[in-house]
From TrEMBL:
The lineage of its organism: Eukaryota, Fungi, Dikarya, Ascomycota, Pezizomycotina. PROSITE patterns: ZF_RING_1, ZF_RING_2. Residues 128-178 form the RING-type domain. GO terms for molecular function: zinc ion binding. It comes from Fonsecaea erecta. InterPro entries: Znf_C3HC4_RING-type (IPR018957), Znf_RING (IPR001841), Znf_RING/FYVE/PHD (IPR013083), Znf_RING_CS (IPR017907). Residues 202-212, 219-228 have a biased composition (Acidic residues). Residues 85-119 form a coiled coil. The keyword Metal-binding applies. Keywords: Coiled coil, Metal-binding, Zinc, Zinc-finger. This is RING-type domain-containing protein. Residues 198-228 are annotated as: Disordered.
């Protein structure tokens, strides 16, 4: 059976109606057509905007993925440096702990040094005025004290200069005040921590090893006496 199409037109209902009603209907139809055209334009614009948003989102996703990839590459590139920095930081912490220990050690050493200096000051008057290392055991009439070893070395040095030792009757000038000394101006002495001084007149022309041995024997006897 063939399809039949309706030939009905709404305007046919207005046939025979009043002209004012037909005019009102025509106005409504015009407004409807205008609204349809307006919404059609909005629909096309919205479709274009949606397509633009889709393209923008795709571009944004592409850029985001690219940036994430670059960020991952940068993180991978800086990871070795991070490991180095962490290792250096651990090493720095280790050095700081070691530095703190050294500070404590230095404070203890300073305390020990101060105590040692105080003890050294108690016996400073016993130290030779030339080498500042050995105990002085020789006294000059000009008021200075030295150890036997320094005076022997000084005597050998003067023996090389004949202008100083014009005759053998002179020992030479005092190492400190340059007073000309004779052999009998040099005497043996014995000191103790109580600053007691015992001066022994020298019977020889100059200090000798025998005097040193006598001194050592004297010290040994004193030590044995103290022990008893």
């Amino acid at each position: 059976m063939p399809e039949t199409r309706s030939t009905f037109e709404p305007s046919q209902l207005l046939d025979g109606c009043e002209p004012s009603l037909a005019d009102e209907y025509n106005k409504m139809m015009d407004i409807t057509e205008q609204t349809k055209d307006r919404y059609g334009t909005l629909w096309r614009d919205s479709n274009a905007l949606m397509a633009n948003l889709v393209r923008t989102k795709a571009e944004l996703d592409r850029v985001t993925a690219l940036r994430q990839q670059e960020l991952a590459e940068h993180r991978g590139a800086i990871e070795p440096y991070r490991r180095v920095i962490r290792a250096k930081d651990r090493q720095l912490q280790k050095f700081r702990r070691k530095k703190q220990k050294l500070r404590h050690r230095i404070r203890h050493l300073e305390t020990d040094l101060r105590v040692a200096n105080e003890e050294l000051e108690k016996v400073a008057f016993l130290i030779c005025e030339i080498c500042y290392a050995k105990i002085k055991d020789t006294y000059t009439t000009c008021g200075h004290t030295y150890c036997q070893g320094c005076l022997s070395t000084y005597r050998q040095f003067l023996a090389c200069d004949m202008t100083i030792l014009a005759t053998q009757c002179h020992f030479g000038p005092c190492p400190k005040c340059r007073t000309l000394l004779k052999p009998d101006d040099i005497r043996k002495l014995y000191l103790s921590t109580s600053q007691d001084v015992v001066v022994v007149d020298s019977d020889s022309d100059s200090p000798s090893e025998d005097d040193n041995n006598d001194h050592s024997d004297k010290d040994s006897e004193d030590s044995e006496y103290d022990d008893n």
